[in-house]
Amino acid sequence: METKILKKVDLIFQESNVNEVIDIVTKTVTRSSDDIILDIIDSGLKGRGGAGFPTGLKWKFTKNEDSAVKYVICNADEGEPGTFKDREILDTVAPKVFGGMTICGYSIGAKEGYIYLRGEYNFLLPKLNKQLEEYNKLLKDNKIDFTIAIKSGSGAYICGEESALFESMEGKRGEPRNKPPYPTVAGYNSKPTVINNVETLVQITMICKMGPDKFKELGTKDSRGSKVFSVSGDTPQAGIHELELGMPLADFVEDFGDGDTKAVQVGGASGHCVPRKQFKDTIIGFEGIPTGGSMMIFNSSRSMYNVLHDYLEFFTEESCGQCTPCRVGCQQLLKGIESVKKGERKPAYLDELKKLANTMKISAKCGLGQSVANPFNSIVDNFKEEIIY
Amino acid sequence: MSNIKTLVQQLVEKHGKTRNSLMPVLQGIVKEERYLSEEAMLTVAEELDLSAADVYGSASFYTFLDTTPRGKNIVRICKTISCHMQGKDELIHAVENTLNIKVGETTHDKKFTLLTANCLGWCHKGPVMLVNDDVYPAITVQKAVEIIETLAKHTK
Ligand SMILES: Cc1cc2nc3c(=O)[nH]c(=O)nc-3n(C[C@H](O)[C@H](O)[C@H](O)COP(=O)(O)O)c2cc1C
Ligand code: SF4
Q1: Which domains does chain A have, with CATH numbers?
Q2: pTM of this prediction?
């Protein structure tokens, strides 16, 4: 493992205006699409939306599809509890997101880009639309055949899941599709589609600006670059912080905790709960716990039963209801911990519930149902007394 | 021609007569009417050449596309964990008392509907309240009551 000291950085929120981004874009598109994609692969950039798929490969697969129509979609549905970085990025440095989308469009051969913005962020629309109008015009002036438009969501967490997002854009219920086919083959309108997180697209613009080597200097071998973290909970520094990837959780808690940190939920409601005794051995990054950036800090005054109860309520409400393991499983997990708490069930019932969560992991249709076991098992295993008494 | 019909036709004109326009059209209606009436959904089905069941199926999936009558102002308070830790319960109680309704209800004068919401994306600045499209992060109980009272005066 590399032992360098990982630090705070300031790349993503570095000021940038539309003209500067257009400058980066016009320079980049003088190169061949293969060269650009090779640079992105070489940079080691992985998706910042949570799943961490290598961005360059995703682009390559989509480029290789033979289709006259392809799409670039920016996933700005940001619904994971504890995540609020994409809103800040779109509020402060949106042109960099547009730039990443345009470079993607050029690289894979797409002429249309869409930003799927969650309905909760509608207040950003007037400003974003104005910026887009200017940006689209500049693209045209520079003879770059690509336009970006915004589609709004309507309050459904599941629409952040890529195939549910396509369904929603097609005017349907936001119910995830079976995979394969993957979006690179059949995404929006069943055409080859690259879908990337807001932050991933900003990283593209930055990599094209400074070159992959500069980007690689940040982070560790498995987790290249920096990452925007959304820090909340019991911390004197709640807010948005850009850090190098690959940091031990202990260092993070040292910097951001309030001195009495009991647990950190890494990766939002669908992520993992790490108790104090594991801080030292936990790496924040793809070699440890990957995260879309949500870091919720809990101190010893908090009841982990309440935390788990909140998460399960969230999943029960946001499950699309399409497949039985998730629709019924979420409800039963919630009812289950309530009945153990009330003493209607013996503590050993928690083991039955864990079996249910593990069954959901292998049988649910999409990432929502599959990941409920993450918070459930990690909280039940590490804070059993708090769940029972 | 009824108002709804004109509105739907305008929206279809703007967004195009395709299935892909369904969401923007429904969102446009909700923006004006605050909810989707049966008449509105039937009109959309007709104008976009879809079955009414299809339109209702999509509409009923989304939290922000209400199919029951709502007040002129929709107040949503985030109830997810970070806001829970930062006092969303007190905020909800205060707003309930000010409006004299419970969560999920609409005031008699049809000016307000009070709802809770899942994570609104302001976990570092909770509790947070969304009134229609306007967001109020790190809001105090007192400020929330003021906002609602002011809005009540200005809503006809
Ligand atoms: C339930 C669920 C919700 C998701 N929500 C989001 C989201 O809000 N934003 C996002 O970028 N990715 C979200 N994802 C991941 C996307 O499906 C997809 O992997 C991602 O947008 C790809 O972009 P990236 O490779 O740049 O990370 C979600 C996945 C699941 C299963
Ligand atoms: S796992 Fe849950 S959210 Fe995903 S398809 Fe099944 S019911 Fe829907």
Answers
A1: 18-215 (3.40.50.11540), 226-299 (3.10.20.600), 304-388 (1.20.1440.230)
A2: 0.97
- C-alpha distance from A302 to closest chain B C-alpha (Å): 9
Tokens 């806001």 correspond to what residue?
B83
Name the DSSP letter for residue A177.
P
Q: State the sign of the Cα–Cα–Cα–Cα dihedral A213, A215, A218, A223.
A: negative
pLDDT of residue A9: 87
Looking only at the bridges linking them, the beta strands covering B73-78 and B129-131 are antiparallel
The answer to whether the beta carbons of residues A59 and A108 sit under 8 Å apart is yes
Contact A231 B80 (CB under 8 A): no
For A1-54, write each residue's pLDDT tens digit. 444 566 788 899 988 899 999 999 999 999 999 999 999 999 999 999 988 999
Contact criterion met (CB below 8 Å) for A117 and A128: yes
Q: How far apart are CA A362 and CA A359, in angstroms?
A: 5
Which tokens in the block code for residue A308? 């788990």
Q: Is A45 in the pocket of ligand 1 (CB under 6 A)?
A: no
Retrieve residue B144's tokens.
Answer: 């929330």
Size of interface A-B (CB pairs under 8 A): 120
Q: What is the pLDDT of residues A250-277, one digit of tens each?
A: 999 999 999 999 999 999 999 999 999 9
Residue ranges of domains in chain B, CATH in brackets? 3-61 (no CATH), 73-154 (3.40.30.10)
Please give the ipTM for the structure prediction.
Answer: 0.96
